[in-house]
Amino acid sequence: MSVKITSFDLPVKRVVAVLFSMFMVCLYFPAHSPGREWLLADDHKQPAVLGEGTSYVIRDNNETLVELAWRYDLGYNEITLANPDLDPWYPGARASVLLPTSWIIPKAGSSGRTYPLIIINLGELRLYFFNQRKSNLFVTTFPVGIGRQGFETATGRYWVTKRKKDPCWTIPSSLRDEYPGGTVRVPPGSANPLGRYALRLSRHDYFIHGTNKPLGIGRRVSHGCIRMYPEDIEKLYEMTPVGCEVLIVYETVKVGVKGGIPFIEVHPDYLNNKNQQTIARYLLFQNRLWGKIDSFLLHKAVEGKKGIPVALQ
Fold it and tell me: Strands, DSSP E only, in 1-144?
């Protein structure tokens, strides 16, 4: 199964209609709610399964999966993977939409870390912020946009070196051909692609930042930086100190446990094309879960690649 999430092409009139629809949603529905926080179990030895999936019925022909993604703090990739039979721009009135509001914590965040900690999983286009208060460990998660083909965001271990509110953007020399008129610096404002908040990483060409193009969240569209919804980056900015460790990983297969039941979450592998059945079996053995699963459910989940936690019992 292949899923294209690198670009989009829409008629201008349709984009205007969607933006108007999103404006009306702001008037009649609760606003976008930035990442929810969960308290993790004390043992935290196996990756946890956060949240619960839910469903939503499309009200009319003007409502889209794209605005639902924004409203429920999901990425474009997440809502389209979970609903492969629905057109993201024309799902149709009374269509039932699965809202994938459940996630398995990446293996990189399972144990042995110091906090606060940010983990960005490029395999699912999602960020996890871990923070310890007294003896309790909490995690908050947000969707992100990442580097497009040819500008893939690099995995690695970094640190937040600077926090910037209303940042200016100095256009790298390698990108100035894309900005005619000799523009070198973009001041704060609606035209600034960094948005209102930015966290500079120890790899100095990388930021975690807001965006003036929120439809790019859940897509591979940046030059390597990590983009977030404006509401999400504001919340993350408030929580994140200078010196916070940032791990950027690539995990397309994750396993976790909830209520004693093993779960698996599988995303399309857009980089490595590795055998995900083999990876899944290895992770289940590693977490001592193999004897507790239904192999048919495992095979179905791996082949489906819907990006949602699936129970294996």
Answer: 37-39, 49-51, 54-57, 96-99, 102-104, 117-121, 126-133, 136-143
b/e code 182-212 from CB counts within 10 Å (16+ = b): eeeebeeeeebbbbbbbbbbebeebbbbbbb
% of the chain beyond a pLDDT of 90: 71
Say how many C-beta atoms besides its own lie within 10 A of residue 114's C-beta. Answer: 9
Would residue 282 be called left, alpha or beta, if left means φ above 0 and alpha means ψ between -120 and 50 degrees? Answer: alpha
pLDDT of residue 166: 95
Contact 245, 216 (CB under 8 A): no
pTM of the entire predicted model: 0.87
**CA–CA distance from 152 to each of 132, 195, 208 (Å)?**
31, 21, 14
Longest dimension (CA), the chain: 63
Structure tokens at 148: 């497009």
DSSP state of 105: P
- pLDDT over 70 percentage in the chain: 86
- pLDDT band with cut points at 50, 70 and 90 for residue 171: confident
Query: Amino acid identity, residue 227?
Result: R
